């Protein structure tokens, strides 16, 4: 479960990046057919907009100093996300106990699966952090956070006894020893 | 509080292992057969014309009434085993049957209509000699009992003693018979061997001696064997040395009259002890003046004693068996004479005239796989036209009873040999014809002979056959489903025998002490084949081995029975096919030397028969089969073949090793001084036992490895001193290969009989504690420790570390008759102990209750391990009885066999009765329950399937509509 902050940040960035290609100061629409088609699209009848009027508000794209900081902040949010979850996870771990039943197992599965998922989509995350100056540091923090999460999950598995770390876990695979001598006999009939 | 938690824990633990039979499962996979044993006395209930009872008193101390129409038991009373419950005499009169039991210890009267006890009295001490009913003026009110020195008269109504008198000169005279014929007198007949006969006449009223005479009879030694009272109180005897018949008038007692047999033109077969049979139709009347005389094995005569003269009425030769029977006023003699090899004819003759009665021929077919007829029990009745009709019960050498009606219809047969099963094995049934066809198709030989094309054709044809049988099976299922369940008969015959899909149905091969072998279908209990081995000595030891199972088609399965005469030590082998009971073509070797033991090796010859080694008294070994291939294999593996012999008379345990030339050398010897203790039993492990888990998981999840020595022996000894302060029993765990004593335990103040079960890494034994006067169980478990010494091979010669030994004891609230452990295919299922109780119950006790690791103080770890806290008492829970109310009398042995299902173990308990069932020690984890709701599940499945189909279609329509909008 990603934090809302992180997700929001990513969304904002993508919007800005995506619309960058078609960014224009102003635009003049002269072709009639085009207008018509737009009219039809908007479904507004025969109303003709004045020249220079755009239906969409043109975003203010002037880069400001505070924006830069915001990006940094956002990126740090993303990077620290996994670390922030650890106390929460610890609490859940404590609450769920070590008994083996459906809810603790689901808990553990979630805990283990999320860091792994995050680590697998590491490249996507790096792309998110591209715009940040501290990209590598943030990536490292993100990695560490996820690794910690995974370690925590493994620790939980261990304390629940789900890891085959004991000799008893391999007992079922021991083949019965082959007997070397053949013996028989009994009471004298 | 702690106790409460303990109790709760116990409840939780116990809750899981409760397993009992549901009401509707009764008789579904279990059956019981009740037997009575070898018949000693039989009486047909004649006081009512329509009665259909025959009373049987047997050598197994059983008194029973059997339905003559069906052969089923009406009721049965099982007395103590041994001489204490021995039935000495049966006196049957009207509704009552009076039994003298336990060498004259007890007199009992049974009501034969319901089998209830009328009364029972304890008689004075003294060994029993004879008993008879005493009647006066046509009514019978008393029974006379003759003992060594005392004669007593008892009321039939309540058993009270009317009078008791000492017999005169009982130190010198051996009183042997008592006679009464309704004239108010009771005659006690005694003999002084080779000197004279003593006759004492008592008044039936008050026991006063009326007459006392002794008559010279120097040839006489045994009255019951050679004498009988005939006619008007004429004591008639036959003697083989003087070749004469002697008569003595008991009323006058003048002297013995000798009638030489030669004067009658008769001759006794050489070496035969002639025998006299008289008949007294009613105890209050005189015996008939006609009697039967047997002069040879197949020579009988019907004679008449007429005023001191003997008249030959009829000469029966050849006649195997003769017997008198009375109905109404008519007495007949039934005579069985051989017709040809396979049949005997039985005819009725009038006793008065010796004339043959018309239309009374009855054909008795002698089964070639059964013994010869031994005794004839005749039930005569009057037909509507006042002629005599009859039915016979033929008792044969193999203890079988066959009840036959005219003209030879067998109404029922009871195989009473099964009341004394000595040993048994369960053999897998063969595959069905089609399965066998498939097996044969891809056999080795076929592939070499045929080309590709013919193989394809073969495959197609076999597939076609399979399809055909499948369709037939479906049709049968459909056909049967319409009939009510009770009407669906499952006929079992040898022809349609085949293995079921879970291998739950097997062939039980049972060896009985009479020498008769049986093949019984384990599912229904019907006898599929029987084979009688004649000339089996009475004290023979049997050893049954399965040499080849059914798995090696087309080779037939093969069982070998080793029969050893304990007196001469000589042994013989009987090789047979366990499915059909036929003697195998394989000729067993002639064994000239006495055989000590046999040993079935896991080696196989080229025909997949396991090799049987026989050890003779020179400690030389012979192999069967002994082909070149086998001998070569033996030479190769001789160094690793060991065997042990236990001679309990000398207290000697010795181990031997096979040399390549099939001689042996002694490797070890342990001598237990016979003056102090003697070896009672030696138990090894069962060769077909599998142990799935090599260790036990501890609470901290480490492993305690089991000490699984396949050649470990548990030797049980009992002290010769039986004083309760000094008696003890000993348990010795010995490695059979090296003779190394692994463990030794001595239970002081304990006494046998000791019952032992040895399996996996544990030994459980039960004994009587003389100190606390109770039955106790003790369990020994052996562990290798936290590490395995060698996990790939087990060699007794390379075991430097001694195992850890744990032991714990428990109190058991009942004595036990026998004990065995369950056995499953792979050994994954937990083990139970099957305990036969003297009460007739078979208890399935989970092994987890007999676990030396049961802690006295509960800890976190022991709870983790699911160990039950130690409690000294083992409780008997009624739901642990696997045979619910189907009591199995006198359980002598329990046989367990694995089935094809890992959860299921087949159990056969045998003794006087035979009981077969299945047990599920860990419940049926691999089978759906009987009441599994197939309908519900399939209907839900179908409903869901259709729901998905419909909703998918609806969703498509909806999407399309939205796209159009």
Automatic annotation (TrEMBL), chain A:
The protein's matches in Pfam families, at most eight in alphabetical order, are given as: EMC4
The domain of life is Eukaryota
Topological relation to the membrane, as annotated: Multi-pass membrane protein
Gene Ontology CC annotations of this record: endoplasmic reticulum membrane
Q: Which UniProt keywords apply?
A: Endoplasmic reticulum, Membrane, Transmembrane, Transmembrane helix
Task: Spell out the subcellular localization from the entry.
Answer: Endoplasmic reticulum membrane
Q: Where is the signal peptide?
A: none
What residue ranges are annotated as transmembrane?
Answer: 91-116, 136-155
Q: Output the InterPro entries linked to this UniProt entry.
A: TMEM85/Emc4
Subunit and interaction comment: Component of the ER membrane protein complex (EMC).
Q: Which family does it belong to?
A: Belongs to the EMC4 family.
**Protein name, UniProt field:** ER membrane protein complex subunit 4
């Amino acid at each position: 479960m990603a934090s809302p902050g992180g997700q929001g940040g990513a969304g904002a960035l993508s919007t800005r990046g995506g619309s960058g290609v078609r960014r224009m100061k102003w635009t003049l629409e002269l072709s009639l057919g085009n207008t018509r088609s737009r009219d039809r699209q908007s479904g507004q009848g025969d109303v003709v907009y004045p020249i220079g009027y755009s239906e969409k508000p043109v975003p203010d794209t002037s880069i400001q100093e505070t924006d830069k900081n915001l990006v940094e902040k956002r990126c740090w949010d993303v990077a620290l996300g996994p670390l922030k979850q650890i106390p929460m996870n610890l609490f859940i771990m404590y609450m769920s106990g070590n008994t083996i039943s459906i809810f603790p197992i689901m808990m553990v599965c979630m805990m283990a699966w999320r860091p792994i998922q995050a680590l697998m989509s590491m490249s996507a995350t790096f792309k998110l952090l591209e715009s940040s100056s501290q990209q590598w540091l943030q990536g490292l923090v993100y990695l560490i956070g996820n690794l910690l999460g995974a370690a925590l999950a493994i620790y939980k598995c261990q304390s629940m006894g789900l890891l085959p770390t004991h000799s008893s876990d391999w007992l079922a695979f021991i083949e019965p020893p082959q007997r070397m001598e053949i013996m028989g006999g009994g009471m004298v009939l | 509080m702690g106790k409460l938690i303990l109790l709760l824990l116990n409840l939780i633990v116990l809750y899981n292992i409760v397993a009992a039979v549901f009401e509707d499962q009764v008789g579904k996979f279990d059956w019981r057969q009740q037997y009575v044993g070898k018949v000693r006395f039989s009486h047909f209930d004649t006081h009512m014309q329509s009665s259909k009872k025959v009373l049987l008193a047997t050598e197994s101390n059983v008194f029973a009434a059997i339905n003559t129409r069906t052969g089923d038991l009406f009721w049965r009373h099982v007395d103590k085993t041994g001489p204490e419950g021995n039935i000495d005499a049966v006196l049957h009169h009207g509704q009552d049957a009076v039994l003298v039991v336990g060498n004259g210890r007890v007199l009992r009267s049974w009501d034969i209509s319901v089998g209830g006890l009328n009364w029972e009295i304890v008689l004075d001490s003294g060994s029993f000699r004879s008993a008879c009913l005493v009647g006066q003026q046509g009514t019978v009110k008393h029974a006379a009992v003759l003992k060594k020195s005392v004669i007593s008269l008892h009321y039939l109504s309540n058993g009270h003693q009317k009078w008791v008198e000492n017999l005169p000169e009982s130190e010198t005279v051996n009183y042997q018979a008592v006679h009464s014929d309704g004239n108010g007198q009771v005659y006690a007949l005694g003999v002084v061997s080779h000197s004279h006969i003593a006759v004492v006449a008592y008044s039936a009223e008050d026991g006063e001696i009326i007459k006392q005479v002794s008559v010279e009879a120097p040839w006489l030694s045994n009255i019951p064997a050679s004498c009988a009272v005939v006619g008007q109180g004429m004591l008639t005897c036959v003697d083989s040395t003087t070749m004469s018949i002697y008569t003595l008038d008991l009323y006058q007692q003048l002297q013995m009259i000798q009638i030489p047999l030669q004067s009658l033109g008769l001759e006794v077969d050489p070496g035969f002890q002639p025998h006299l049979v008289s008949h007294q139709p009613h105890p209050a009347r005189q015996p008939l003046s006609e009697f039967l005389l047997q002069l040879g094995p197949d020579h009988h005569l019907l004679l008449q004693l007429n005023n001191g003269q003997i008249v030959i009425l009829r000469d029966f030769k050849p006649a195997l068996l003769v017997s008198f029977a009375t109905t109404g006023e008519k007495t007949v003699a039934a005579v069985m004479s051989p017709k040809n090899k396979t049949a005997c004819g039985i005819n009725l003759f009038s006793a008065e005239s010796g004339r043959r009665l018309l239309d009374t021929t009855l054909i008795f077919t002698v089964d070639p796989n059964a013994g010869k007829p031994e005794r004839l029990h005749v039930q005569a009745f009057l037909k509507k036209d006042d002629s005599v009709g009859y039915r016979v019960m033929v008792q044969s050498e193999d203890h079988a009873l066959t009840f036959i009606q005219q003209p030879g219809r067998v109404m029922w047969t009871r195989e009473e040999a099964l009341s004394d099963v000595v040993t048994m094995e369960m053999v897998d049934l063969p595959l069905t014809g089609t399965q066998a066809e498939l097996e044969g198709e891809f056999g080795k030989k076929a592939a070499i002979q045929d080309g590709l094309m013919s193989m394809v054709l073969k495959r197609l044809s076999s597939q076609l056959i399979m399809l055909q049988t499948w369709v037939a099976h479906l049709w049968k299922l459909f056909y049967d489903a319409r009939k009510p369940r009770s009407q669906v008969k499952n006929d079992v015959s040898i022809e349609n025998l085949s293995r079921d899909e879970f291998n739950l149905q097997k062939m039980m091969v049972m060896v009985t002490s009479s020498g008769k072998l049986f093949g019984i279908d384990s599912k229904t209990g019907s006898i599929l084949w029987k084979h009688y081995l004649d000339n089996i000595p009475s004290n023979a030891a049997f050893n049954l081995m399965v040499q080849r199972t059914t798995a090696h088609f087309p080779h037939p399965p093969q069982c070998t029975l080793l029969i050893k005469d304990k007196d001469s030590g000589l042994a013989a082998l009987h090789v047979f096919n366990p499915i059909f009971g036929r003697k195998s073509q394989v000729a067993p070797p002639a064994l000239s030397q006495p055989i000590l033991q046999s040993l079935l090796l896991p080696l196989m010859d080229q025909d997949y028969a396991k090799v049987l080694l026989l050890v003779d008294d020179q400690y030389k070994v012979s192999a069967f089969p002994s082909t070149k291939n086998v001998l070569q294999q033996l030479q190769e593996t001789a160094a690793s073949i060991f065997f042990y012999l236990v001679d309990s008379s000398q207290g000697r345990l010795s181990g031997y090793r096979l040399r390549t030339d099939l001689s042996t050398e002694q490797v070890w010897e342990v001598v237990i001084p016979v003056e102090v203790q003697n070896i009672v039993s030696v138990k090894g492990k069962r060769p077909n036992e599998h142990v799935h888990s090599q260790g036990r998981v501890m609470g901290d999840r480490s492993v305690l490895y089991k000490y699984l020595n396949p050649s470990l022996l548990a030797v049980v000894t009992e002290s010769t001193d039986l004083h309760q302060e000094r008696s003890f029993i000993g348990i010795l765990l010995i490695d059979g290969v090296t003779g190394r004593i692994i463990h030794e335990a001595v239970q002081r103040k304990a006494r046998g009989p000791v019952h032992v079960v040895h399996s996996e890494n544990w030994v459980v034994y039960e004994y009587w504690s003389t100190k606390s006067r109770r039955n106790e169980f003790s369990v020994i478990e052996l562990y290798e420790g936290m590490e395995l010494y060698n996990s790939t091979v087990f060699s007794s010669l390379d075991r430097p570390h001694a195992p850890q030994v744990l032991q714990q004891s428990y109190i058991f609230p009942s004595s036990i008759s026998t004990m065995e452990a369950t056995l499953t295919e792979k050994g994954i299922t937990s083990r139970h102990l099957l305990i036969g109780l003297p009460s007739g119950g078979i208890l399935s006790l989970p092994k987890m209750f007999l676990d030396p690791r049961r802690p006295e103080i509960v800890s976190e770890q022991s709870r983790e391990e699911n160990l039950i806290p130690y409690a000294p008492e083992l409780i008997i829970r009624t739901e642990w009885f696997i045979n619910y109310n189907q009591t199995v009398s006198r359980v002598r042995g329990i046989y367990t066999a694995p089935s094809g299902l890992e959860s299921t173990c087949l159990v056969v308990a045998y003794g006087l009765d035979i009981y077969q069932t299945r047990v599920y020690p860990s419940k049926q984890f691999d089978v759906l329950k009987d009441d599994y709701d197939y309908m519900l599940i399939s209907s839900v499945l179908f409903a869901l399937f259709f729901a998905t189909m419909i909703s998918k279609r609806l969703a498509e329509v909806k999407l399309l509509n939205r796209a159009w909008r």
